[in-house]
């Protein structure tokens, strides 16, 4: 759990000149989180940062959180940064596109790729729907999202060749025999009807397409030609939980083909470490078929549930993200929290 030694949630006397781009109220909590995360690291641990649901607006305080993420990732020599979706708050398309690009630019850093996954707010379809604009002029289509924030990952990650705009892909960490699978749980058909409206609305309609299911089965778990192929592990991220049984929070509809994805996970159980997700705006951990499913609190400063921690803008609790170390030798996954919430230790089958 983070140390809170003043009413502002920090050691007010402690400042750190390593963080000139951050307000003073971030300095002590960030240093403390990094120190705790370093204690979880050992030779061979897989080290990730998981940051989800920023719901960013242009110039918003999540730019500070993005800077803190980069400081932590650098200090911990993290393997990658995962952005778990709902990157933007909805509004007019030009503002949302600006916010999306601004945020992703802020969180990128050399040597540690920032891996986004598609959230249900990220197509911005809710803007036309709520305003009854009878069209899709404010929708951010997958081809646009790919061009704006995913295409720069070509050569770093492996997309589904020929279907890059499906926005699902893998990232390999060869030295640690680990594959990070980034799924798209809003992989729907973006088709405009005769009345100008979308056939499906990504805000509320969720799916893993049949093509994504096929890719997941035949590509994600294909380690042919890799050294010690039987020893490789897969860490899976999606915005929505793959299956929703027992999940707390925003459970507002099953993901089509989620059960098919889960069947593939069970079939390849020896390779799967965990499934992590956002969307629900609450911290939780549950097991399905012995596999840990973990959600991380929303980064944006909303407190959606009574059992969630307090959020106060102007303190570190205005955001939240996890510094993750996975230790295969111990079968242990440690999540060190910066911001609102607490550290967690989770066991998995090694």
Automatic annotation (TrEMBL):
- Organism annotation: Cohnella herbarum
What is this protein's record name?
A: Calcineurin-like phosphoesterase domain-containing protein
What Gene Ontology molecular-function terms does this entry list? hydrolase activity
Q: Pfam families, per this entry?
A: Metallophos (PF00149)
- Domain (Calcineurin-like phosphoesterase) ranges: 49-282
InterPro entries given for it? Calcineurin-like_PHP, Metallo-depent_PP-like
Membrane-traversing stretches: none
